[in-house]
């Protein structure tokens, strides 16, 4: 059974990472163990979050759609992780050494 669980986990992992580009980096550092196995507890937590997200997407919005807001959101650029981090530091300056080093690297 354990072999099947590992195989199933690896298949689900491959499907998830192929469907959401960029997610593989987070999964590799948080879910994959150094020996290549999958940390099922963390993978289960991720699955719960994905399930909640899918359920949230299916909820009907009680507000009327505003075409100007939709146009703005569709025309807004998609920011990279580094650009978002830099914007965050500009709003709230870094207050510890790791944040200060990250801020220097981003500049």
From TrEMBL:
Coiled coil: none
GO BP term, pick one: Ras protein signal transduction
A GO CC annotation given for this chain: plasma membrane
Gene3D superfamilies reported for this sequence: Ras guanine-nucleotide exchange factors catalytic domain (1.10.840.10)
InterPro entries the UniProt entry points to: Ras-like_GEF, Ras_GEF_dom_sf, RASGEF_cat_dom_sf
One function term, GO molecular function aspect: guanyl-nucleotide exchange factor activity
SUPFAM superfamilies tied to this protein: Ras GEF
UniProt-recorded name of the protein: Ras-GEF domain-containing family member 1B
Highest rank taxon of the organism: Eukaryota
């Amino acid at each position: 059974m354990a072999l099947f669980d590992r195989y199933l986990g690896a298949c689900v992992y491959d499907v998830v990472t192929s469907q959401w580009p960029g997610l593989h980096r987070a999964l590799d550092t948080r879910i994959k163990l150094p020996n290549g196995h999958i940390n099922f507890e963390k993978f289960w937590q991720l699955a719960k979050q994905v399930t909640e997200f899918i359920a949230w997407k299916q909820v009907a919005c009680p507000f009327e759609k505003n075409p100007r807001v939709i146009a703005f959101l569709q025309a807004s650029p998609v920011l990279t992780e580094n650009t978002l981090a830099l914007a965050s530091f500009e709003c709230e300056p870094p207050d510890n050494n790791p944040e200060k080093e990250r801020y220097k690297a981003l500049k």
